[in-house]
Request: fold
Amino acid sequence: MHRAPPPDDDLTEMNRGQLILLVLPFVVVQLGLMVFALRDLLRPDREVLGGNKLVWGLVIVLGEMIGPVVYLLVGRRES
Reply:
């Protein structure tokens, strides 16, 4: 049987520090969007599309990065 040559460790293996540096900005942006959207949703004077804040809260929390963006773009209505 013919075996493939071993991969070059310098190019294919990412250490934990590099992985954290790659993922951390996405986590910070996701949490920031989620907190901002939830604070906006919980304002007493905020009206939302469909009138159900619980559903929009679930969209924000369970929708990961896209949920807060969808809420901020189409879910809220000015009172």
User: Anything to note?
Assistant: The mean pLDDT is 88. The first strand starts at residue 47 and ends at 48.
